[in-house]
Amino acid sequence: MPKIAILPDVLASQVAAGEVVERPASVVKEMVENSIDAGAKSIEVEIQKGGASLIKITDDGSGMGREDALMCLERHATSKLKNAKQLSAITTMGFRGEAVPSIASVSKFRLATREHDAVEGTEIIVDGGIVQDVKVAGLQPGTIFEIRQLFFNIPARRKFMRAESTESAHVEHQVKLHALAWPNVRFTMRKDGRTIFDLPATTDKRMRISGVSGSDAGRALIEVPPCEESGMEVHGYILPAEFARKGRRQQFVFLNGRPIEDPAISRALKDAFKGALADGLNPSAWLWIEMDPKLVDVNVHPAKKEVRFHKPFEVRHLVLTAVEAALGAKSETASSLRGEPKIISRKDGSSSPVRQPFENKSEPEVHPPAHSREAVSAPTSSQSEKNASTEPEVKPSFAVKTTVEQKELEVEANVKDTPQFLILGVLHDRYILLQGDDGLVVMDPKAARERLVYESLLDDGSAGVESQGLLVPELVDLDPRDFDVVMTNLENFTEAGISLEPFGGGTIQVRSMPAVLADKDPRAFITALIDELVDTVGGKRGKSMAFEVFAEKLAKRAAWNEVAKRNGVEPFLEALFSCDLPYCAPDGRPTLIQLSLKELERKFS
Length: 605
What we know:
The protein contains 20 helices and 27 strands. The chain has 605 residues and is of the alpha+beta class.
């Protein structure tokens, strides 16, 4: 008997669904793209229970006749691709003919469609890939795709679906992504019977960005005027450096109407901001790129998220040039200052450096604690002799020495067995150099600040972290996925002294911040903290994520822009060594490292 056999059609479709249908958002993506290809001017998406119970997409596109409606349920059946020559110049969103039969094979599927000039429509019922009924139906012109009980016949796949709120957030993000790509189409979304948004068709991309991303982004947009090069054109909008985020979740790139992700374009965006972005941050941008379909291959990824450019260097240069020109139009100096901080002109004609996210305010001169001032005062020689003759010598348990004006200063602290240091200086505003008993000690103030904030949160966690109310509550517009992160960790935010609540749509209202972070910009800090928490959503921890993990991420974000300063090193060290674990950050990174004299001697031998 032969060992190799052709898979049954239903099983083949279910296998294909493993590539096409990752989650409910994947279904929405494929169906919405079909609606766009059908010329729809209005698309409505409705979901229930995160899409697991119901996904319904209604459009006013061209619709289908009875024969085409039945044919679209066959694998590799498509009206968008006729021959191999067309494959090198794809102009439609979909083209493989796998989406509809794959989705129908793993759900209870209903298709209702009617052409504009037809008297009657067609309704088809499919159960797990098997056609159950085909009948005449009366409905408005266009098409309705209704998907119920997704993965009902593949329990293993259904088990891997995330929480309802997480799946809903991904669906909402997917719809908004296509709404940005096609602003001339009206998009409406409903969730569990409630309208989430209704975006009217518009020719103004700025209006669509504001509708999708919130008014905060809309007010700060910098236009990227159309820029042409080598038969390609790019235009769009960017946000100033202070809106930069960790990761690339706020970068939206559309190629001939198709949302794509491309590392070369992301790199070009970051290079255009060079000198104005903190390490690890990426700018926010909305870019529309138009080019000859022959210059790009879109058939390289199952979900068509990635593409392959025939001229990748030209595309990168085009984006870099266009964004630099946009920044230059807002800059008092030319883009030739790349590598140096950009200077943004103010309305009054003055200028100031671009404010970095989480920039620490200048710290006032910090004096040692009152109980240590006698030890800090430099005694005269006569006083020293007198003290030596009348009092026994007492070795301080904590001492910090410095070379300011050739005088040695000592700061006492009630900490036992703490090493003594001579403060040498600061290296590149990044590290603090100290002389220890046996060589050079280098302190990382970021790691040290993380340890301080982390233990402060944990020490106060049981009684509630001391919180400081904001004079004016801060409204923060969030992406649906970011909003889900906040709602998932709402209890942890409250325990950490951050009081916030939903304010309608994807907006939250921040009422208070922890006292230890009172100098932070609430909007920037919250969005950056979300970036740290993004990987926890839908994971095993979920809503029950331990507060220790949340505190660790919050401490990391709080110390993100910590700058090494000579002023205030003494009390900083004193506070560090009052911690339970002063020698490491919460994630295990060292706060101090030592290079012994023997190591240094070996380097020079």
